[in-house]
Amino acid sequence: MSLSLNRDTQLCMSLSGRPGNFGTRFQNFLYSALELNYVYKAFTTRDLPAAIGGIRALGIRGCAISMPFKEACIPLVDSIADSAAAIASINTIVNDSGHLRAYNTDYIAVRSLIEQHHLHPAMHLVLRGSGGMAKAVACAFRDAGFRHGHIVARNAATGRALADTCGFAWVDDASPLRADVLVNVTPVGMEGGPERDQLAFARDMVEHAQTVFDVVALPPETPLITLARSLGKPVITGAEVIVLQAVEQFVLYTGVRPDAALIARAAAHALA
Q1: What are the pLDDT digits (tens) for 58-96?
Q2: Are the C-beta atoms of 128 and 153 separated by less than 8 Å?
Q3: What does pTM read for this prediction?
Q4: Buried b (16+ CB within 10 A) or exposed e, 222-241
Q5: Is the backbone of residue 218 left (phi > 0), alpha (psi -120 to 50) or beta?
Q6: Does a structural domain hold residue 143?
Q7: Are 134 and 187 in the same domain?
Q8: Which residues are catalytic?
Q9: Cross-strand pairs, 152
Q10: Would residue 84 count as lying in a domain?
């Protein structure tokens, strides 16, 4: 059906430092296909407390939280689900009659992908990044049983803290390292960013790796993923992450779980 707004339409939204179109296209496609009276819109903000207060005051049903707000939102909500509390990073807020509860569907998505791609806990992991998304990804690997790993981060404070949280080591330079699984959780390779044409890891590291995982979703084929594919390496893309976590957000907002075929159609529409 075509989207028709009325006084009973429930608004869902996102807050990001650099808003994109994926969530808007994905969620609205599903609302329309399932004839749900919802609408979704992306926003950014320079006043985070006021924005979160607006969610509560205006009865906005849900909000996706992206960089750089995933940790800063924590003091502004009323309760936090266990998976988000354990990693002190949120990416979803659900408003139930003025009570704001936070979740982390990034963590759920990454745990699922580790299982789907049969990554073995004995593998050595090198993860680049130390922000809120990196925390979700690193903790997902930790909770999947990974014990041998390095966090690569230029910020010593956040890098050390994340490494300590997960039982990994911290380094500020990945070049001496070799690993079975390489994971990029930085903006390197991101569409529209200053490092969009750069590799998150050096070519010799990619050559050595068994699996390459880039959390950057746009473009789905980052320079890192393109190189890994050319070398015949198994890859996990940011598109896989963004779709899985968005499905979990949709379920939290609406209480409805779409079937796999509809999810695939929504993903194709959103990523086109």
Answers
A1: 999 999 999 899 999 999 999 999 889 988 999 999 999
A2: yes
A3: 0.89
A4: bbbbebbeeeebebbbbbbb
A5: beta
A6: yes
A7: yes
A8: 70
A9: 128, 171
A10: yes
